């Protein structure tokens, strides 16, 4: 299972303050689905407002990116700018 790290705000809003947890999934999309089952409503936020880093590397369009059983997946707020 991948180790998932959530920001404090998302953890507080959906996961009762839990910032780190293990979630099964072979892709980011599967990890998000697993989180959605645990915390209804979190999926849409993760898909639309968060960036994804897998093992410390930020990935654009990460939904189909593979996730290893020992991977660390971080969901961080999207940073926009000009």
Strand content: 25-35%
- The CATH top-level class label: Alpha Beta
At the third CATH level, what is the topology name? Ubiquitin-like (UB roll)
* Derived structural class: alpha+beta
The CATH superfamily is identified as: Beta-grasp domain
Q: State the order of secondary-structure elements, H for helix, E for strand.
A: EHEHHEEE
Write down the overall geometry.
globular
Count of the separate structural domains: 1
Q: End-to-end span in angstroms?
A: 37 Å
Number of helices: 3
Detail the poorly predicted runs. Answer: none
> What's the architecture in CATH terms?
Roll
Per-chain topology:
Blueprint: E1 2-5, H1 8-14, E2 20-23, H2 28-38, H3 42-49, E3 50-54, E4 57-59, E5 72-77
Parallel strand pairs: 1-5
Antiparallel strand pairs: 1-2, 3-4, 3-5
Helix pairs in contact: 2-3
């Amino acid at each position: 299972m991948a180790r998932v790290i959530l920001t404090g705000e998302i953890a507080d809003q959906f996961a009762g303050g839990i910032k780190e947890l293990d979630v099964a999934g072979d892709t980011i999309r599967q990890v998000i689905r697993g989180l959605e089952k645990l915390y209804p409503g979190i999926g849409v936020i993760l898909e639309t407002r968060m960036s994804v880093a897998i093992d410390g590397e930020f990935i654009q369009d990460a939904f189909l990116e593979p996730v290893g059983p020992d991977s660390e997946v971080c969901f961080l707020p999207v940073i926009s700018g000009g």
